[in-house]
């Protein structure tokens, strides 16, 4: 008896409840001709009954799934011979239980099967079967009970529409609070861990220090202050890579947006716009190895030809490729705002004898500027948070440099390197990742808030 | 009392399409479409949007120092015809104009003629006021700047002032020239658009329902202004208000389904229309 069979059965019960509820409502009103004495349309009574039949039963089913395994497992554990568990670490016990479960469900087992384990597995399988049956009975009973409740409550005065509406509202609120609470939880945990980091390392050192070498802190006898956690080189590195990216993305994105919005014939536009947007769909890891394997060596070789010494992981290579990745952001956002400038502005300008380029330069761009700036800020926050390309193409060494041909590292790269590999979760090194993450989060949050408020204000202007 | 294009087509639906086509081509304009002292002359103008004909062999003059009004049910092609006169239709994909349209004897659809300076000579005011999102001053200075009409800031200031003066807006805005034009009231915005048009010293001003978005008082001010502007410009105005046509224009042209049905002295059109369709429209039987 699979769970999905139960769900299908439940859906059928709901359909039945809908049908019965609707019928009962019509009957209670005194037939189809008297429908207008009902408070709500008959289908709302049907929905009301269906919700009562389905929702509590589904909730029960969810709870059951949450707890069944735990309860069954603890029953099985209690029955295991004591000598099997004595003196074993909790990890070992977990392994044994895993074996039992695998045996019960017919999967491959890691250890040899002793009679005790076989017995426990049999018990496990039996208990699970019973629990399954009990769940079917309980869930169906609740479903039928809910249906009966709705059936009894159905009468012409019942405000079925309002009830259904408020249940739907409640469901929506539940789902949106899941999203909001998750975000809140993430932010809080980052804030909390950062706080622990700043207890070990002073914020002054972190935000103003110019020396970043967290590796030292790995040694157990040197935890904390002995590691160098000056994040300035990371900030400047991030800034440089993002700046190079924007230098690529803004002109190209803006020009292509203007071309597409103002000059391109409809058929060119219908092909070019999706093609540019494909750039946004390329996985960043692909950009990453494009940067590391194609662009970086190319730049190094070109630099060698010009007699320059270029690092094989230069800020320039990462920035250029990141810029290409961001082009579609800038171009499609700019395209939207340029298209949002009303046609009447263009007409007004043309009717005064302005040419197309005069109209674009003097009317359309100024009118669209706030929106374009908002789009660029969104792109900047995207660039700052971008990880994959820089992990692959920018370096790891935290150089404090203004030379784009040097290797630099970024905040995101350091977060990745701090957290990969075996880590103690309370060392300053690991916690530094949270502090970096918090900084990154705050910066992009501020950028996004500014950008969105600019874009929104601009939208209002033409409503 | 608006009648949609669909309804119009239903009214003529009894005729077969072949009959309709021959009907359309055989129709001639009642009344004298010429002006004594013409500034613009249009002869047999046809306009197509793609394969759909929107204007059908229209001939009409616009004389010096006169206001010609164009009336007719919506969708009959008034705006389309008006937009031919400054080649604004060029900006619409798939729009094609044939026939002859001359400004001071010069063919404006001539291949060698650049529509850009033409639009400075034939200015246009739109249905909805459309000031640029710039200051009042910059709105008026826009045209003179792109055409390089002035040599100094002082000259430009003077031109802006005189244009606003002519549009009857100077007194109201002289203390806030640096504020956005979009912050003015609807009627003021429309006068700002007129000032903007005047600033490039056009010969002809086209107005497409310039008062349809305005309240009665703002409308009265603009109508007065149109009458004053007649001293220096030729004006063609599309209006859906017959009272307005009667108040501001010397001659009136009645359009119907892309045809110019009747032209004449405004007085005569409104008191003694010759064509049955004109009469039906004037007396409010449809339109
Ligand atoms: N840009 C356009 N593309 C296609 N058809 C148009 C366009 N503009 C107007 N038309 C058509 O041309 C006819 C005349 O329209 P228009 O000149 O706007 O009428 P009016 O101004 O008298 O209400 C209508 O049937 C309209 O649907
Ligand atoms: Mg119109």
From TrEMBL, chain A:
Keyword Disulfide bond included in the entry's annotation: no
Keyword Cell cycle: no
GO annotation, biological process: phosphate ion transport
GO molecular function, one term: phosphate transmembrane transporter activity
GO cellular component: plasma membrane
InterPro entries: MetI-like, MetI-like_sf, Phosphate_PstC, PstC_N
Positions of the ABC transmembrane type-1 domain: 235-451
Entries under SUPFAM superfamilies matching the protein: MetI-like (SSF161098)
Topology with respect to the bilayer: Multi-pass membrane protein
Main location: membrane
Residue ranges of the TM segments: 45-67, 133-152, 172-195, 241-263, 275-296, 316-342, 363-384, 431-455
Keywords: Cell inner membrane, Cell membrane, Membrane, Phosphate transport, Transmembrane, Transmembrane helix, Transport
Protein's job: Part of the binding-protein-dependent transport system for phosphate; probably responsible for the translocation of the substrate across the membrane.
Family matches, as PANTHER family: PHOSPHATE TRANSPORT SYSTEM PERMEASE, PHOSPHATE TRANSPORT SYSTEM PERMEASE PROTEIN
Family per similarity comment: Belongs to the binding-protein-dependent transport system permease family. CysTW subfamily.
Protein's recorded name: Phosphate transport system permease protein
Source organism per UniProt: Thiobaca trueperi
TrEMBL record, chain B:
Name used for this protein in its record: Phosphate ABC transporter ATP-binding protein (PhoT family)
Any single GO BP term: phosphate ion transmembrane transport
Source organism of the structure: Thiobaca trueperi
Keywords per UniProt: ATP-binding, Nucleotide-binding, Phosphate transport, Transport
CDD domains: ABC_PstB_phosphate_transporter
Domain ABC transporter intervals: 40-282
InterPro entries listed in its UniProt record: AAA+_ATPase, ABC_transporter-like_ATP-bd, ABC_transporter-like_CS, P-loop_NTPase, PstB-like
Alphabetical list of Pfam families matching this protein: ABC_tran
Single GO cellular component term: membrane
Gene Ontology MF terms in the entry: ATP binding; ATP hydrolysis activity; phosphate transmembrane transporter activity
